[in-house]
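Handout, page 2. Input:
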Amino acid sequence: MEFSADIGIFGGSGFYSFLDNVRDVEIQTPYGNPSSKISIASIDGKKVAFLPRHGAEHQYPPHMVPYRANLFAMKMLGVRKIIGPTASGSLQPEIRPGDFVITDQFVDRTSGRKDTFFDGPETRHFSVAHPYCPTLRKTAADAGKSLGITIHEHGTVVVIQGPRFSTVAESRWFSRMGWEVVNMTQYPECYLARELGICYANIALITDFDAGLEGRDDIPPVTQDAVYKVFKENNEKLKRMLFEMIRRIDLSETGCRCNIG
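Output:
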């Protein structure tokens, strides 16, 4: 392939629009077209591929994102490490809007999504006991803390189908289970990276307290506008963290368990 990249980021144009060496690439995969063109730029001597998971116009709702095409396009470019920031809701009172959570587990509550590259006749089974890359997670936590960002270094994200938000009953159930974060896109994105042997880390940007947070009856229902408002306010903070992560990532590291099926 004419173009290549070392690191992939699922994020919009706000992360790279100020760079002057960006090249847009159209890639066709065996799983269809990815959400958008992929923008490739050189940052700190590393080639980074940016892809908005919801599309350039945010036209793909969570259950319709072409996850397999997005991940396979990154693989075709040679990407070895992916950072997947997400807007997320908090399920616990100590995790507040504006905080970042470096998730280490997920609970899948989605349905009907294409979530494997092995539909047959070839069949493979992958361990996903620890779905996120420990090395990349540590890099994320260290980068965030160095910038003074409030970082929670562990957390379970429960992935709901969307595009609707949770009911109060559902949210209270999630909270009582001890899960920390709720989101709509982490599955199957992070698992597909594992099938391809790509290291993956999620940065959950907390935009709101979820509807059923125990003991917080004063919390208004979650709305799309409120989520977008907090995400936009914290976008600059996230951008600084991503670029600090890129600076710290060691591409010479080998032996990571993420590429073992």
